[in-house]
Amino acid sequence: MFMTTNRAPSKIIPRAFPGIKPGEVEELIANSQVHTYAAETVLCRENAIETIFYMILEGEVEVTKVINQTEARVLKTLSAGDFFGEMALIHNAPRAATVTSKTEVVVLELDKQNFDRVLQHSSSVAMAMVKEISERLRQNDEMAIEDLRMRASELAQAYQKLAEQDLVRREFLANVAHELRTPLMAASGYLQILQKGRLQGNQLNEAIETVSRNVGHIISLVNDILFLQEIELVLPAFQPVNLGEIAQSIVKKYEKKATERGVHLKVRNERNVPEVNGDSKSLERAVTALMDNAIKFSPRGGDVEINFEKQKDWLAISVEDHGIGIATDQLSRIFDRFYHLEKSGDDLFGGIGIGLAITRQVIEQHHGKLNVESKQGKGSKFTMLLPLETGI
Ligand code: CMP
Known about the structure:
By secondary structure, the protein is α+β, with helices and mostly antiparallel strands. Helix content is about 50%, strand content about 25%. The strands form five sheets. A five-stranded mixed beta sheet has the order 10-12-13-17-16. Strands 1-8-3-6 form a four-stranded antiparallel beta sheet. Helix 7 (about 245-260) runs parallel beside helix 8.
């Protein structure tokens, strides 16, 4: 083939192999063939047994190698004057990488026999080849080492995460057992008394009432635990939810309990609350948990208020009480599963500390935020922020 442009093999070969003698260039050209390939042609395939050596006369190729069994990493882009496909021929091994044309490429090709002959005859070609191969091997080694390092650190991180999860799980189990034991012991104690059959009248009613309250407590704890476990596993289909209506129905549900405790419930700005995209059951549960705590920690005659406010792209729902409040150093812990304020003055606040963990989890599931403002002795205000018009 006759070429007069600067892609002529006689011009390009000396660029690849500095010091090559004119006779050697002639020999190389005489034993090779020029081929043109379209873009996106695979010229060398990693791991394949192939026996052609290439020198690029025109165009560009990309050298890639698969790491981690899935990810193809680009090692280098080669252009006119660069060669490839030499490693498999010299090592008698499968291709070390994949070489794909990025543009249309014109290449000079040598088969193994001719390649070996040129290598034996020309020290300049051999020298250039040794230099280039050692550089490529070094680069490939570095990549492999870097890859190993990355994988080792990924493994270490995964291991640490697992260890943390394991700890959380163990603490969770211990807490569950502990939380269940109190009402179970109470119920079982009263059942033993009942079994003796000596209680009558008011005493009998009280004992039955205590057993029933404790069993109710166990059921609600088990339900909460199941809910919390489930919410981590299944993502419900989101739909438009009217939280104003939900708040009203929660207040209705809690009216009796609040009256018994002398607590006043109020809902503000619940009309025309913009709908949020979410799961109504989970959101109801989240607000209920806040409400439950607010009533629990309110003094007699205290107010609990649910308020709605639109804040830019967020819907803010706050639940505020004027009860005992939370100490600053305890604020960060209150969302832990089972954390609860056991004692305040002489009042024992029993009950399951799983509520806030549920609220937090639901908010996370809805890509929202949860803020808490609280001062000891002054009360607490929990604000759920839910995104409006999300494309979830
Ligand atoms: P071979 O193994 O025959 O086939 C794939 C080719 O990709 C290989 O020869 C080299 O020519 C080329 N190659 C491998 N690793 C590199 C690298 N790090 N940089 C440039 N080219 C490479």
